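Researcher: Sequence recovery benchmark, item below. Answer with residues only.
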């Protein structure tokens, strides 16, 4: 949030004399910090008190850490090696302690002399390095360190109580160097223009922005840190919510054609032929969508619901209502397999209502066409013709729908399936095909907690389908600890065999494909990984399928499915599986979305700890889709006490996707939530934790909505306008265009 010219100054200038241009360059390249303002908003991750010591027992593996600890002992060893064959090799082993745990530091070769002099028993220092394991013990190899020596003039009490800020750092730049750089630019904090309106700040008892920046970087007490955090969280929540409120306000000014279904049209005829009754949830959500379609400005609605909660049925009814009202509806699916499947299931559900203009078509029928990249020229030409003439009321397709040559007669509704798989430009291109902006319905099967929906999709109204239709079967989930109890894994394969013998089918999911060996670089990498027994490569589809077909599942028909297969081959495998010709499908996560095989009752997920919580939940939703109960087995070699095992235990213990997605978010960085992690841009959320700070987000949304209603251009709030420009660089502007 670079708010004023003083804060826009590139870091090279102020740091030139203190740390040198090279440090500024590392900050830019490795931490994304380009200006003085960026550095002031690079907040400490935590604080150590000089008189206290770090908890060494909880250090994360493979992460870059900074610890404050005391040297317990230091020993210099000599050894013989290829480089020093005469026993002249030197290794310094230093043990540091926090009073409870111990941690080994190791230095080699010429690098031993300085630490051997500096790190005497009893010395206190900050140590920074990457945590690794050697001989089953945690260690830091060649850590950087900064001795903590009290100035002689400084009284011991002051020194011992001082708070040391520890910053998110990298291997190339230690925390204390960042602290030194912050110290240099801290006077510029006085120039920071406050984005919060005075009335809001005073009403909530928040400190001014310059004061908050001083207190976060140079706190005297823990209370200073709390004051600063409370204030900086509000900044992030409020500025983001103002951006979303302005988006909603602008959308409400756009014109759209209201689409009201005919009283006795296509929708009525469709409802009459349904062999089941809609759930209360489906009725409620449909009513919300129909209200949106009837409005004179474009509907922007997010429909989220569990796998199998009947979202497609709700979306189809919205599309039929649009066709009734004289418009066309387009459904955008992320893959050809999914587009074909939607097309099949929608035409089956509609029956003669999908045969508009054909013999045997019903009175109110329309045409439902499919448009994908791999269609033949004749079929494609016919589909394009049906769209431009308006003959086809509903089109289902992939990215092929976005191409310039695709023209609609009157596009009224766009349904996007699996929101997160499409880029903003693609959605915009499809929306741009309407004479006026069409209504938009976005569907996702990844349940999103309400706060996250408010933060990320704050410009979309949200509908939630949280009950499963009648006839869906429960799914039992169990963790299979393959390393601790190998006989559990043998029993898992017996269960798969039993399901197949009872006429059902099973999925086996693996994290990797397994044909990477063709690439010499990847093969070398894999070899190195195998040498490190702690980290074997993830299990692969091709190897697992081969092992199962020759071993525990011999005699059953086993096929493979993964993303590098040709589209036709993938489709053929899926058709055989759907038809019941294949007993077991060994696949990567390509089956995660939209594959519907009601006869599949069992799923075994290998190396389940390598998948995210939401992904496991999504995968599990592929079984139990028919009348027989589903079974999901999560296979892992992780030890019982590990966080990964606890995560799997949580997945096994509940089928509530919203509960699981909260858990998922608590374990991930918020950067992922705002969609920044994938692109490498830094998250705009540095202080705000989406789950933890639900109240702040909800209150900020209320304040932002009323402020924008009164002053949409923020004419009276120059500080807020500047903060918005800084927050919404081009990339984030696009991200917020998700709606």
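Model:
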């Amino acid at each position: 949030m670079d708010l004023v010219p003083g804060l826009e100054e590139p870091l090279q200038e102020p740091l030139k004399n203190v740390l040198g241009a090279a440090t500024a360059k590392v900050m830019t390249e490795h931490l994304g910090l380009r200006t003085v303002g960026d550095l002031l908003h690079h907040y400490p991750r935590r604080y150590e008190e000089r008189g206290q010591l770090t908890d060494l027992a909880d250090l994360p593996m493979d992460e870059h850490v900074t610890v404050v600890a005391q040297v317990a002992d230091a020993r210099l060893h000599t050894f013989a090696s290829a480089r020093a064959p005469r026993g002249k090799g030197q290794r310094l082993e230093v043990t540091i302690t926090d009073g409870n745990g111990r941690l080994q530091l190791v230095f080699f070769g010429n690098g031993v002399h300085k630490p051997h002099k500096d790190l005497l028993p009893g010395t206190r220092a900050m140590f920074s390095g990457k945590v690794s394991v050697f001989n089953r013990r945690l260690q830091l190899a060649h850590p950087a360190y900064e001795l903590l020596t009290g100035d002689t003039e400084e009284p011991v009490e002051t020194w011992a109580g001082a708070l040391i800020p520890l910053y998110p750092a990298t291997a190339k730049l230690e925390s204390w160097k960042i602290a030194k750089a912050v110290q240099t630019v801290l006077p510029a904090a006085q120039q920071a223009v406050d984005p919060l309106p005075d009335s809001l700040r005073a009403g909530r008892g928040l400190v001014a922005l310059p004061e908050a920046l001083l207190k976060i970087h140079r706190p005297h007490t823990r209370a200073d840190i709390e004051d600063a955090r409370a204030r900086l969280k509000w900044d992030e929540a409020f500025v983001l919510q103002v951006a979303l409120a302005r988006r909603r306000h602008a959308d409400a000014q756009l014109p759209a054609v209201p689409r009201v279904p005919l009283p006795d049209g296509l929708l009525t005829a469709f409802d009459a032929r349904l062999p089941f009754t809609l759930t209360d949830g489906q009725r409620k959500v449909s009513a919300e969508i129909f209200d949106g379609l009837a409005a004179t400005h474009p509907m922007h609605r997010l429909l989220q619901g569990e796998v199998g909660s009947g979202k497609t049925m709700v979306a189809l009814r919205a599309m039929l209502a649009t066709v009734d009202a004289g418009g066309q509806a387009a459904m955008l699916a992320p893959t050809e397999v999914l587009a074909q499947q939607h097309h099949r299931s929608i035409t089956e559900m509609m029956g003669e209502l999908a045969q508009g203009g054909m013999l045997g078509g019903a009175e109110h029928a329309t045409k439902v066409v499919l448009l994908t990249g791999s269609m033949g020229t004749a079929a494609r030409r016919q589909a394009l013709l049906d769209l431009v003439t308006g003959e086809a009321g509903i089109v289902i397709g992939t990215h092929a729908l976005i191409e310039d040559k695709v023209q609609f007669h009157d596009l009224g509704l766009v349904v996007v399936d699996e929101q997160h798989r499409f880029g903003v430009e693609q959605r915009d291109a499809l929306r741009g095909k309407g004479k006026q902006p069409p209504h938009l319905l976005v569907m996702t099967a990844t349940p999103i907690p309400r706060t996250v929906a408010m933060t990320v999709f704050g410009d979309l109204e949200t509908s939630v389908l949280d009950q499963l239709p009648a006839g869906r079967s429960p799914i039992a989930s169990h963790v299979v600890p393959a390393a601790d109890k190998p006989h559990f894994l043998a029993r898992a394969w017996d269960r798969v065999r039993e399901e197949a013998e009872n006429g059902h089918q099973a999925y086996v999911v693996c994290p990797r494909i397994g044909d990477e060996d063709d690439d010499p670089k990847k093969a070398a990498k894999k070899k190195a990984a195998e040498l490190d027994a702690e980290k074997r490569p993830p299990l692969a589809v091709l190897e697992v399928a081969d092992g199962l077909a020759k071993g525990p599942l011999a005699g059953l028909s086993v096929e493979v499915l993964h993303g590098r297969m040709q589209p036709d081959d993938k489709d053929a495998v899926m058709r055989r599986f759907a038809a019941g010709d294949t007993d077991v499908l060994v696949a990567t996560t390509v089956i995660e979305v939209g594959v519907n095989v009601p006869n599949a009752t069992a799923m075994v997920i290998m190396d389940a700890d390598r998948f995210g919580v939401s992904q496991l939940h999504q995968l599990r939703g592929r079984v139990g889709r028919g009348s027989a109960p589903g079974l999901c087995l999560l296979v892992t070699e992780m030890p019982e006490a590990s966080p990964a095992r606890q995560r799997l235990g949580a997945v096994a213990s509940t089928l509530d996707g919203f509960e699981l997605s909260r858990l998922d978010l608590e374990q991930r960085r918020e950067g992922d939530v705002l969609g920044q992690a994938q692109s490498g841009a830094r998250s705009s959320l540095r202080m705000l934790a989406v789950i933890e700070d639900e109240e702040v987000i909800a209150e900020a949304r209320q304040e932002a909505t009323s402020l924008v209603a009164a002053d949409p251009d923020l004419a009276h709030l120059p500080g807020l306008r500047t903060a918005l420009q800084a927050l919404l660089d081009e990339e984030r502007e696009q991200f917020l265009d998700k709606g």
